[in-house]
Amino acid sequence: SAFRRGLIIDKKRGNVLKVDRHKYVRTAYHGMKTELSSAERKSIYSKEIATFTESNYVNIDTLFTPIDSMLFSQLVDLKDLKPNVIKQSYEQMYKDIRACVDLCHRDGVIKDTVLKDPASYIIYDENIVPMLRRLRKSGKKVFLLTNSMWEYTEKVMEYLVHGTGDHKDISIWHDLFDVVIVGGCKPAFLTDNYLALFTVSPQGYLKNVEDRESCNLQYLENKSKIFQGGCWQDLHRMLEITSGDRILYVGDHMFADILRSKRTLGWRTCLIIPELEHELETAQRESKLYGEVLTLRRLQYELDEHIDTLRRLVENGDESSIDLLSDALQQSVDLKIKV
């Protein structure tokens, strides 16, 4: 899909933007197929100093939001084609989309659909189980912390461990973990010390944990290692650690997983960025071209310095440098075209 993290939605104009690190709009699409020309982009986005954090912009920065940009672009095309059918503004359209998508997450329709056929929505990775085994074999304590509830977590993890009939020696998937916490309510899990903690039975029944101080490694081994809710202090107690830097937390949500845990608790963090896989493959495939571009840019830099030298000579009355400067300027134009 062309819709991925890193893009920006312009709610006011109905555009989806690709912006570089200098805040320059490199590519802009109005709807699904209409790409704005360079002149159109500059006339809209170069006249204003935008940080793209203003209220009319939305950053697609989590794995939950690419669907927003896709639905928004499709509705923009429909509105432009049939303005009498969709009379709302682009901004109101986006607001309605966000409300609908949020409702789908809240009422469970998305997860219910996934649970009916996990293989159609979840990529099975044969390396997950060997990785978890290696970590535990090396003496690491492995935990699963998720906002999903037990029913969804249990079925998804069952598929990820046993989905293709592999790993028949593992009777239950949570044998691969020392602690499992569902319904974590991140980021509140990382900041609120007063959230209730429950144990979860294999059937999904909850039992309130009254003596939270007793939830240590021995408790996990003898009683239960599957919990719902709680907070970071409970997790530290279960793992018997006193410092956040003893934890390496792996997640794919920049805010709920990474930033808050790092800044508030000092956890070591690892951000999963699926988009990097394609970027790395492209970089490796085009490494020769990249090297050629670097060579040309070095030549361009050296030629620019040579041109500056010739200009100073001409300004000081050296007529013999005029032709040399003209040739150098033409070489610079040719080199920029190559680059």
Automatic annotation (TrEMBL):
Q: Do you know which Pfam families this protein is assigned to?
A: 5_nucleotid
What molecular functions are annotated in GO for this chain?
5'-nucleotidase activity; metal ion binding
Sorted UniProt keywords:
Hydrolase, Magnesium, Metal-binding
Task: Name the family the entry cites.
Answer: Belongs to the 5'(3')-deoxyribonucleotidase family.
Q: Which PANTHER family match?
A: 5'-NUCLEOTIDASE DOMAIN-CONTAINING (PTHR12103), CYTOSOLIC PURINE 5'-NUCLEOTIDASE (PTHR12103:SF15)
Q: What is this protein called?
A: Uncharacterized protein
Organism annotation: Chromulina nebulosa
